[in-house]
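wait is this the right file?? whatever heres the structure
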């Protein structure tokens, strides 16, 4: 009884054929395969080796010929491009061995898959969890393929795409692109390689937003990065985490937990294309509340977070005024000291009770009046009292207050929505608003923290002042 060796010959270059495969081809009595691939192994076959080549879509015939010859006592090498076990002949050979109840010995020799070769040319795009999806629906219904695409996109897998297009399949790659844009940011790195390892090889780097399916054909492998992938020095890199771990030894446990929480939140956001400063505030809001409704409720004026951060950094914003002491308590003391910012709440000022009694207003209103007298250009953060926010709006309209910014996150059922609507017309004041009834001191404080730590946003590295 003979033997069948199923061998992956790599993506198309003799330099990418493993020594084990070359040895097997050199010792074979018969080599069976798709005719296009013989050009890569012909120099290595021995004299008198029979080469049986067939066209595309004749996989069963090839397998049957291999068994017939092996059952005659011959050593047969069945070749597949890439790795024969990945969309190749190996599964078919084993299925046929089972069907025939054959005693032929079957061996499988791995090869370099096209996605591996493409990845090496692109840099290091598969440094973390990845999957491979074929868009060919010859063997798999499109409905199942689409489910797999959605799972890969939602699961944040680096995704290699085989058989992206053909003459008859022109729209499937467009649909994959559409699905990924629903789950990944438009700046997610994408690389694709045409004819990897062959003379016609073409390597392209782009982003998910700029990716053009029309630039791809059936000889192309597409690689889509995950949320951690980035482009650098004309390479696509997906970090495994070793570098991060090596440089995080001095970080406190609390910060490491917060960093992991932010990564988790980012991965579960419905939308991926938020401006960095809005996303940074949003991540803080969701982390504090565990409430993904914040994605719909949190409003930031364009550039509000970065504008306020730059004012703090440049020494132009030395004071934060809060409506209640609970907001003050939640703002990180380390960040305030590092940046030279002072937080003040006037609620416990002895003058507040007197003013409130004499004017017939709430104590928080009185506190804001006093704050505006002393610090009319501070950042004002509201996490409790809608009347205090309404008071500030009135003072702005009278020209007595000129806030550097406003965080509007009062909570409750009476005048809460109205107070937030009242602040919106002040177009020249950077604002962060938690829409509707939701809010709270914890939210107002964490939004202050988002401003104070915006220089950590690009690295998604919160919590250094914990």
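ok assuming it is, sequence goes like this
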């Amino acid at each position: 009884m003979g033997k069948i060796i199923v061998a992956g010959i790599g993506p198309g270059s003799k330099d990418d054929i493993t020594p084990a495969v070359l040895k097997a081809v050199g010792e074979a009595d018969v080599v069976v395969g798709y005719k296009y691939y013989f050009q890569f192994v012909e120099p290595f076959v021995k004299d008198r080796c029979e080469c049986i080549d067939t066209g595309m879509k004749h996989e069963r015939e090839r397998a049957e010929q291999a068994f017939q010859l092996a059952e005659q006592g011959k050593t047969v090498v069945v070749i597949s491009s890439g790795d024969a076990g990945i969309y190749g002949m190996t599964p078919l050979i084993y299925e046929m061995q089972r069907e025939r109840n054959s005693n032929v010995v079957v061996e499988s020799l791995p090869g370099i898959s096209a996605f591996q070769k493409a990845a090496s040319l692109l840099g290091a795009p598969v440094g973390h969890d990845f999957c491979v999806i074929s868009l060919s629906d010859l063997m798999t219904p499109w409905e199942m393929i689409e489910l797999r695409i959605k799972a890969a996109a939602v699961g944040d897998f680096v995704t290699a795409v085989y058989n992206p297009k053909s003459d008859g399949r022109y729209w499937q790659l467009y649909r994959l692109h559409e699905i990924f844009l629903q789950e990944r940011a438009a700046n997610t790195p994408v690389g694709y390689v045409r004819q990897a390892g062959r003379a016609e090889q073409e390597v392209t780097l782009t982003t998910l937003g700029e990716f053009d399916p029309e630039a791809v054909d059936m000889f192309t492998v597409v690689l889509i990065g995950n949320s951690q992938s980035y482009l650098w020095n004309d390479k696509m890199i997906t970090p495994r985490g070793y570098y991060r771990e090596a440089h995080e030894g001095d970080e406190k446990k609390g910060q490491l937990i917060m960093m992991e929480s932010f990564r988790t939140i980012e991965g579960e956001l419905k939308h991926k294309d938020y401006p960095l400063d809005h996303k940074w505030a949003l991540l803080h809001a969701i982390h504090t509340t565990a409430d993904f409704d914040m994605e719909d409720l949190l409003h930031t004026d364009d550039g509000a977070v970065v504008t306020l951060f730059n004012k703090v950094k440049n020494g132009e914003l030395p004071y934060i005024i809060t409506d209640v002491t609970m907001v003050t308590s939640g703002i990180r003391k380390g960040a305030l000291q590092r940046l030279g910012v002072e937080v003040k709440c006037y609620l416990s000022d002895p003058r507040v009770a007197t003013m409130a009694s004499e004017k017939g207003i709430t104590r928080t209103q009185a506190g804001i009046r006093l704050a505006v007298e002393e610090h009319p250009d501070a950042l004002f953060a509201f996490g409790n009292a809608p009347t205090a926010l309404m008071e500030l709006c009135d003072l702005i309209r009278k020209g007595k207050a000129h806030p550097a910014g406003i965080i509007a996150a009062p909570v409750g059922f009476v005048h809460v929505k109205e107070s937030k609507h009242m602040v919106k017309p002040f177009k020249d004041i950077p604002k962060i608003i938690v829409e509707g009834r939701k809010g709270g001191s914890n939210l107002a404080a964490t939004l202050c923290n988002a401003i104070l730590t915006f220089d950590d946003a690009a690295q998604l590295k919160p919590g250094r002042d914990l």
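The two ends are 71 Å apart (CA to CA). so i think its the right one actually
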